[in-house]
Amino acid sequence: MMGQNEYIEKAKSLLKEMSLDEKIGMVHGSELFKTAGVPRLNIPGVSFSDGPCGVRQDFEPDRWCAKGTSQDYVSYLPCNSAIAATWNTKLAEASGSVLGEEARGRGKDMILGPGVNIKRSPLCGRNFEYFSEDPYLTRKLVVPFIKGVQKWDVSACIKHFAANNQETDRLFVDTKVDEETLEEIYYPAFYDAVKAGVYSVMGAYNKLNGEHCCQSETQLTKVLRDKWGFDGVVVSDWGGVHDTKCALESGIDIEMNVTDNFDEYCMANPLKEKIESGEISEDKLDEKVLHILVMMQRLHMLFGEERKSGSYNTISHQKSLLEVAEESIVLLKNENVLPLDIKPKERILLIGENANKMHASGGGSAEIKALYEITPLQGLSMILGGNNTVDYVAGYCSNTSEIQDSSWQATSLVNQENAASNTEDVKNQELMKYRKELHDEAIFKVKNGKYDHVIFIGGLNHDEDQEGYDRKDMSLPYGQKELLVDLLSIRPDMTVVMIGGNPISMDPWIDDTKALLWMFYNGMEGGRALAEVLLGRVNPSGKSPISFYKKLEDCSAHSLGEFGCEGEVNYKEKDEVGYRYLEANKIKPLFSFGYGLSYTDFEISDVRREGENVVSLKVKNTGKMDGKEVVEVYKKHKSNKYIKLCGFDKELISCGETKEVKIQVDATRDEKLYIGTSVDDIVAEI
Ligand code: BGC
Question: Rounded to the nearest 10 degrees, what angle do helices 188-195 and 135-150 cross at?
Fold first, then answer.
């Protein structure tokens, strides 16, 4: 293995042989997802692909037109929010490894993920692509995820740096955040990724404190490179660079865009002209090319080195993704309903569009051409077999077709109204009439169908959780609220499953619901995983990576700060993001950060602090089923208003077993530690 200095020396000698045009070819897209490379010197172009949920389908080089072959069907991963809900660092590594191996298998050099932005508001359309509202949980999962990706000679590209937390006016909004808040909330995941050796970072579309992130000297040069020592490649978001001089002087290395006028990109011909006229120096360009050449060596792309070949759609990938999906499902409520005890010949009714809906192909650039996606209806039917009847009625319907138009991305930056027009606002009389028919049909079935078990599977979909669009409020769309109220009055024992990337309002039906499961978009095996949890073949162990607010005003981004504004958005809530604000103000959410039930019970005892950074304790499984439990450690200095996560551990504990657990914590002696099973369920203080 070559060392860093050797990489730089070799890169420098290659650089000496390159003409200005050849260098410029390396710093901007010459296709929608590729740079030019220098064939004369055996330097290939860099090949990119989205994204966080799997390797995206291939497009024509210069058109947002899918190539449309069968070559690019791939494994569809649980979204990053689902990975976060596992609270399992090994599964984060396994997910990254699937993504890296598939990216390499598809011949890609850089995978445009993971997205590590903080979920500041439950309305952000891209929250499903992000991990959590908490920087500590995000950091701890992102590092193994990147390692998993990069072991396949593929660069992870953490995005979007930085403070990219809303989609409204996403290209131009000026995000105003003070330095301390950036350090505490919005930087940590990026910082840890850099320290863990991520090869690439993507700049955000938005401005941060007045500068466009993709050409920001403050963010890319002073913070990322000078302060944190990042020596990898910074890629712009597609269309995020606006000015040649600023770009050249900032730490950005590669400019990508959504249009096909590749030679006119800021870092193409306009850059050449400025260098030739002497307005800007070629040295800056050389620095960028050096970064790219060093990354290529790290990926073994140069000098005929042996490179991992990867593969995709393997059985072992499918198994790993099933495991992630199983551990990500969060049991939010259970009054002796789950697991369902389904006997032969019993009849089951599934109600709700999400029982029968595939989500892989939506959401924006995170879309996936999935080899398959098991829906909940399939999952349950497949497991139960021929001795049971599994019926389905939609009960409600969304507005649009399932398939995202592949020209979406080309127009998304020009016409930001595009996405919004897909939404619930498109109410027309016919749709309302049809929804009423679906509602009545579901009620009729429940009343007359003699079902032993009724399960509602609804929530959101990628018309709501999508790039380029923020929701207007937390309401549950498509008439589901009214449907749930009516269904629960007939079948109070009905299990409710919500699928989505963001919390929704559960008023007023939550009080009448006895069993509630939450599932983020859960990849190709999601429906099977859900069926296993419903039937008790898998004991749920997911914990919420977000707060489920009772109402939007309980979220600090909305009550103290601003969200979804055009022009400028102020993060006045500072570091009181997510549960921190709830804690500081004693506001109870519907379900807390870190919360999630199991089919068994656990007891924590003998909690001790060993030195500054280790907590030891015992966890006993006191119930009747083997299960996994997450022990969460929070910390608080006496000057703080809230407790915050500083350590966690997930363990499999057989029933009756007691396990001794040691948890590494990120805390100092003068901070008190709080140990529990959610931010609101603290069982010990030390
Ligand atoms: C998104 C990025 C994505 C890129 C390439 C942009 O619209 O913001 O996250 O990686 O497109 O598809």
Answer: 30
